[in-house]
Specification:
Strand order of the largest sheet: 3-2-1-4-5
Shape: globular
Number of helices: 9
Structural class: alpha/beta
Strand content: 15-25%
Number of strands: 5
Helix content: 40-55%
CATH topology of one domain: Nucleotidyltransferase, domain 5
CATH superfamily of one domain: Ribonuclease H-like superfamily/Ribonuclease H
Radius of gyration: 18 Å
CATH class of one domain: Alpha Beta
């Protein structure tokens, strides 16, 4: 009798905190054997790697996984979500993580799903996530802080998410080149702050900015229903 494979889905995000550009979530579906290959290839938390190393490892991850899924939330979607009563960025991330799970889970084999938890309350966020998942009978969910450091599957997802985010930022740099350098897109980045100050109002309706962010509202005084409070993220997170 053939033993059933042990399958793992690792999920992580990139770009929760930026003022400019999308938030990206990635999921990687792998076997235990593939997990070992990725670990030996040097897969680890994307923040511990250089951009060239991430790009190289992203190719290895895609070649040594059963499947992967990347989902993107652009500023307009994020703003509409956090402006809606009772919703916030953690809920949006739960919804997007479930979108990945629903796409990768065929319901035929047992799945261990490991996620890097964005909330201080791991149990509450995991319960919220479950509300968006279509097939629950074959899954076990592990929701942890620092999962991107502790689990190769989540490290792999963090790399795919980070590379996808970097690609999106590069597209924006090209598209808005005539206005100047947008920087990393994070509120703590002086280049991004300069770009916002000089061109924020001019590009207010371009879809490049998250206008529910405190940084935007402090500069331009926009009144919205609900204010996001992500203003102190590190530039490279």
């Amino acid at each position: 009798m053939t033993a059933k494979r042990e399958l793992i889905i690792g999920i992580d995000d990139s770009g929760r905190g930026p003022l400019i550009g999308p938030m990206i979530l990635a999921g990687v579906l792998i076997t235990k054997e593939q997990e070992k290959i990725l670990r030996e290839a040097g897969v680890k938390d994307s923040k511990q790697l250089t951009h060239p190393a991430r790009v190289k490892l992203a190719k290895i991850i895609k070649e040594n996984s059963i499947n992967h899924k990347i989902v993107k939330s652009f500023p307009d979607e994020i703003d509409k979500f956090v402006e809606t009563k009772g919703l916030n960025l953690n809920t949006l991330e739960a919804k997007k993580a479930a979108e990945i799970i629903n796409a990768l889970n065929e319901g035929k084999e047992r799945l261990k799903i490991i996620l890097d938890c964005p909330s201080v309350n791991k149990l509450a966020w995991a319960n919220k996530l479950c509300g968006f998942i279509e097939k629950k009978e074959n899954i076990d969910i592990i929701c942890e802080h620092k999962a991107d450091v502790n689990h190769p599957s989540v490290s792999a997802a963090s790399i795919l998410a980070k590379v996808a985010r970097e690609e999106e930022v590069e597209k924006l740099k090209i598209e808005y080149k005539k206005y100047g350098d947008i920087g990393s897109g994070y509120p703590a980045d002086p280049t991004t702050k300069k770009f916002l100050k000089e061109h924020g109002k001019e590009l207010e309706n371009s879809g490049i900015f998250r206008k529910t962010w405190a940084t935007w509202k402090e500069m331009f005084g926009n009144k919205t229903k609900k204010q996001a409070s992500l203003t102190d993220f590190q530039i490279n997170s």
